[in-house]
Amino acid sequence: MKRSSRVLSALLCAVFLFSMLCGAQAQEAPRFEYWPEEVDFRDLTCDLSAADELFAQCVQAEQLAASPESAQAVVDCWLALEDAYDDWDTQCAICGVRYYQDSKAHEADYLASRSLSLQVYRSCLLAVQALLASDYGSELAQAMGQDLADSYRSAAVPTDLQIALSEEDNELVADYWEALYGDYTYSYQRESWTLTRLEDEADGLDAAAYLAIYSGLAQAKNQAAGATLLEMIPLRNQMAAACGYDTFPEYAYTETYGRDYTVADAQALHRLVKDYIVPVETAYLSYRYYDLDQTGLDRYAHADQEAKLDAVEPCMDQVSGELGELFRYMRKSHLCDIEASDTKLDVGFTVNLPSYHSAFLFDQPQGTYYDLKTVIHEFGHFSAFCLAPSDDFPVDVAEIHSQGLEMLFLPYAGELFGADGGTFACAQLSDLISAVVEGCLYDEFQIYLYSHPDLTLSEINQAFLELAQEYGYSPYPGLEYQWVDVSHTFESPLYYLSYATSALSALDLFLRSQEDYDAAVDTYLDLIAGSDGSGYRATVQAAGLSDVFQEESVAALAGALNEYLYTALYGLRDLAGHWALPEIGPLVSAGIMEGSGGAFQPDAPMSRAMLVTTLYRLVGEPKPTVKQPVFPDVPVWTWYSDAVAWAYESGLAEGTGGGFDPNGPLTRESMAVLLCRFSALLELDASGGSLSGFPDADSVSPWAADAVGWAVKAGVIRGADGRLNPSGGTSRAEAAAMLYRFLTLEG
């Protein structure tokens, strides 16, 4: 059965969906009406003569429209045009696959197919509009559906100028790929370096030399590829103006990606991601790279295509029997190419083959865990192209198809990576959170570029560097040049935000899977079955997922991800739902505070030894020079002896009653004193403040009054129920909250 018709794409005849690079099996009922046709991709060739045949059909359609024989003849003519356009789409897809497999051998056909795309679209659109304007137009509108008929009638016919601009843009994209893979050299200490040499000899270089050479090579590539973008920006702004848009981002959001949200909505999301998601990403990256051994993720580094597919297939069956069957169809039909090749371009994507209700999965493997991740990701796209009722879903929805499947694979990480399954699962989660951050970073960057068309390349690089730091990136040599490695900036501008919106939805799906895995799988499969061409926000709402443009939704996702990190990954399960988790979490990630035996014990008393050890970690644990033991109750063999010696040597701890009392409970005023002294040690403000606003101010010990005043003024102590309670004990959670406030003081 033919799937619901779609308005022909105004820009690309082949829709490429690019990658960014154990629970119980779900109980499922048959839900998919469509299934791909039998085909063997090895037998398919790119035949651009299909365009000539389609042009001829368009002429015949216009002739029929001028003198129609019957309503049925008009409807049949339209259906034939739809089939012919699907065939053209498929030919372009095949041509695109061949190009990415060997760009030099197939560049001419690829550019020709892209050049013909708008011409084909224009001819088909004019033909269908003529049929709708014929004597039997109302019957045709009824047959195709009134909404689709209205879309055809209102669609703007591409002008000669628009077609010429599109062809020029295609040529610049080809120039970018050539620049990206150019052979660049950099002279360092009178020696010539290439990227290949740098990779081969990296172990023999110190960090400074490596970074200098790397940055020099990155700059050379940036200059070549960046020059192409400088030509693209005014050209694309002209393309937008030719279509009646004030800015290219507005044009791309609406015409290219069919988004049901605006540029202003996206800019609000950028701010939310900086506020809520960037700190979460930092915490996950800290756990991933400081607490986990990454070497086990190389399990498939040298695996060939069949070995990778063999690993994924049984897990796909466990997620869903229908997806497992479709995976076997893909393999049998040779509809994937994930084998390494020297001639392939460095991308991963899935492309629609509408003539067969099928698709093709492509990847150039990197020799890392990412190769397996890409298979899972891209198969989500493959599934939607084969099973969804329409292939006209927005890219934001398409990326939920891919990223959502990645999240549903996490329970089977152990089957894929054995003892390193937990590391793989963390990497997957971390990558998806990073996709949110990177998606917003590159979207904001590209909106800025098209809003400031007169920027020099140097100014563009500086803008990216500054913006990257707003999104939590630490600057390093060459960072400002690396945006050219993201091909979407050149080939699919303004696409990258779709990775962010969809990743937020996929993370929502993941968190729901922690409560009910079967229900989450059903939600995912229903989302594919319901991908009928509706907008992203409408589709997500229909699936019962959160609206990621609402602050409360993003804040809730961030909070839940934080809780999962510290309770499930760090294993500190007694932090679940704890009021101080937002303050405790960053201290745990930074290694400032720790748990023990799978617990943090947030409500246990904070001892004096615990606090000085925490402060000792903050200054890098310098070896104390004072002779130990400093206090008779702090033997040199205790875990806190160096910290206490440092505190004594630094003037933080003076002892009490002839000793240090390391296990003694820490009062609120004692903690204020230690933090105030620590602030002075760091040469920060340690001046006191007024306590007149607190009814129990007189109960503060005289020796602690100035320090408590400082703590109140700085916001380190806030007072519970309007009282200071200076002699009250301090729990580990309360101490963490006070310490976090201290560490986040401005200045």
From TrEMBL:
Residues 1-26 form the signal peptide. Residues 567-626, 627-689, 691-747 form the SLH domain. The keyword Signal applies. It holds the Pfam family SLH. Keywords: Repeat, Signal. The keyword Ribonucleoprotein does not apply. This is S-layer homology domain-containing protein. It comes from Intestinimonas massiliensis.
